[in-house]
Specification:
394 residues; alpha/beta; Aspartate Aminotransferase, domain 1; Aspartate Aminotransferase, domain 2; 2 domains; seven-stranded mixed β-sheet; four-stranded mixed β-sheet; 17 strands; binds pyridoxal-5'-phosphate
Length: 394
C-alpha cells in the first residue's frame, strides 16, 4: 500500500471507496498523477470540468473575484449573482417569469426542488411526489428520497415521505399522474444509471400530464446541463417547458455551485424566509460560473458537444470490439454498453493505458469528457480505449 492509500484509509470517512490514483495537476483534457503519469480525462470529474482543467478563463475568474470579494451573506447582493441569475433564466428559456435560487451542490439544488414541490397545492392538498426507478438525485435525505435506488435509501430509512418511484414507461406515467401529485421529478438522461435515455415521447407526455393535473414538472439537469448533451439543457431536446430545473456540476466548471431555475407560476411559490443557504449565490462561485458559461457560449462549446458526441459514438462503434453492444446518450454524455459485466475491468485497464473513464455499473462505461475536446483528443481516446477493451476482453 502506498503512503497516500494508507493516509486515506485512516482518515477519510469509509463512505467513499479507495480512490484510483492521487492526482496532482491538469491542463485541458489531461491530468497528471503524483508519480508524473498522464491521463486523458474522459470523465471530467463526473461532468463537472466543462472547460477541462486549469482553463485560463476559469483561473482568471476565480483569482480576480477572490481578490475582490468572496462572500457577503444574503443581507447583501453582488453583480456576479445578478448576472448569473439573468444568464441562467435566458439560457433555460424561462422568460419573463423566470427566477433562480442558488446553493452549493446538486443535492442542495434538489432539496430546494423538493421544498418547492411541497409548496404546490394547486387544487387542494397534495402529498405525492413522483420520481423514476433508477433515478439519482443526490445523497441528502430529501434528494436521496427522490433517488430510485432502494439500496442507497434503505440504511437511512425512514425517508421524507410521499415519494413514489415509477418505471420510465408511458403506461406507468399515465397511471400515476393525478390530482394527488405535487410534482414529477426526473433526469432527461439518467447519468448515474449508466447514461440511460427516456423512452421517445416521455418528456412530452410528462409535460402534458403534469400540466393537466396541476403537478409541477421538475427536471434534474445537474448532469445534463451546461451544454453537455448538445443543448444548454437536456429538456430542450424535447421542446418542452418544465416548471423548474435543478443545476450544478458543469455550470461551475469545477467550482462548487448548484441552483434552481423556475418557470411561470413555480417562480412565485417560495415566499420570504422559506429557504436559504449561507454560501449560496456567493460572488466567488457565481463569478466563476458566469465566466465558465460565458466561455461555453463564446467558444461554441454546446455545438461542439453535439458534434463531438456524434464523432465519438462513431469512433467507438468503429473499433469493432465484440465487447461493445451499443452507445447510449447524447452529446458528450455517453454510455458504452458492454456485452459482459466487465465495466470495472475496462475502467482499470483504461487507467493503465492512460485514460480516465467511469464504470457507471457492471455493463456501462460512462464518458463525460470536457466540452473543449477536438480531433486530437478523440484520436487519443480511440487508441487508449481500444487497448482497454482488448485488455478487459482477454
Ligand atoms: C451528481 C448528481 C446529483 C447530486 O449532485 P451533488 O453535487 O453530488 O450533490 C443530483 N442529480 C444528478 C442527476 C446528478 O448527476
Amino acid at each position: 500500500m502506498t503512503d497516500w492509500q494508507d493516509r486515506f484509509g485512516r482518515r477519510i470517512m469509509k463512505s467513499i471507496g479507495m480512490p484510483l490514483r492521487e492526482l496532482d495537476h491538469g491542463r485541458g483534457a489531461w491530468v497528471w498523477d503524483v508519480d508524473g503519469r498522464e491521463y486523458l480525462d474522459f470523465l471530467a470529474g463526473v461532468a463537472v470540468n466543462s472547460l477541462g482543467h486549469a482553463h485560463p478563463v476559469f483561473v482568471d475568474a476565480v483569482s480576480r473575484q477572490a481578490a475582490k470579494l468572496a462572500h457577503v451573506s444574503n443581507y447583501f447582493t453582488t453583480e456576479p449573482v445578478l448576472e448569473l441569475a439573468e444568464r441562467l433564466v435566458r439560457l433555460a428559456g424561462a422568460g419573463e417569469h423566470g427566477r433562480t435560487w442558488f446553493g452549493n451542490s446538486g443535492a442542495e439544488a434538489n432539496e430546494a426542488a423538493f421544498k418547492l414541490a411541497r409548496l404546490n397545492h394547486s387544487g387542494g392538498a397534495r402529498t405525492r411526489i413522483l420520481a423514476l426507478v433508477d433515478a439519482f438525485h443526490g445523497r441528502t435525505m430529501g434528494s436521496m428520497a427522490l433517488t430510485g435506488k432502494p439500496h442507497m435509501r434503505q440504511p437511512f430509512e425512514p425517508m421524507p415521505g410521499g415519494v413514489h418511484h415509477i418505471p420510465a414507461t408511458l403506461e406507468a406515467l399515465e397511471a400515476a399522474v393525478d390530482e394527488s401529485v405535487a410534482a414529477l421529478v426526473l433526469e432527461p438522461i439518467q447519468g448515474e444509471a449508466g447514461v440511460v435515455e427516456l423512452p421517445d415521447g416521455f418528456l412530452r407526455a410528462a409535460r402534458d400530464l403534469t400540466h393537466r393535473h396541476g403537478a409541477l414538472l421538475i427536471v434534474d439537469e445537474i448532469q445534463t446541463g451546461a451544454g453537455r448533451t448538445g443543448e444548454w439543457f437536456g429538456f430542450q431536446h424535447a421542446g418542452i417547458e418544465p416548471d423548474a430545473i435543478t443545476v450544478a456540476k458543469g455550470i461551475g466548471g469545477g467550482f462548487p455551485i448548484g441552483g434552481l431555475v423556475t418557470f411561470g407560476h413555480a417562480s412565485e411559490l417560495f415566499q420570504k424566509g422559506m429557504h436559504g443557504s449561507t454560501f449560496g449565490g456567493n460572488p466567488l462561485a457565481t463569478a466563476t460560473a458566469n465566466a465558465v458559461l460565458g466561455e461555453i457560449e463564446r467558444a461554441g462549446l454546446v455545438e461542439n458537444a453535439a458534434r463531438r458526441g456524434i464523432q465519438l459514438r462513431e469512433r467507438i462503434l468503429g473499433l469493432g470490439s465484440p465487447l461493445v453492444t451499443g452507445v447510449r446518450g447524447r452529446g458528450l454524455l455517453l454510455g458504452v454498453a458492454l456485452a459482459d459485466p466487465v465495466a470495472e475491468r475496462v475502467s482499470h485497464a483504461a487507467l493503465d493505458a492512460g485514460l480516465i473513464v467511469n464504470a457507471a455499473n457492471d455493463r456501462s462505461i460512462r464518458l463525460a469528457p470536457p466540452l473543449i475536446i477536438g480531433d486530437a483528443e478523440i484520436d487519443e481516446f480511440a487508441v487508449r480505449f481500444a487497448a482497454a477493451l482488448d485488455a478487459a476482453a482477454a
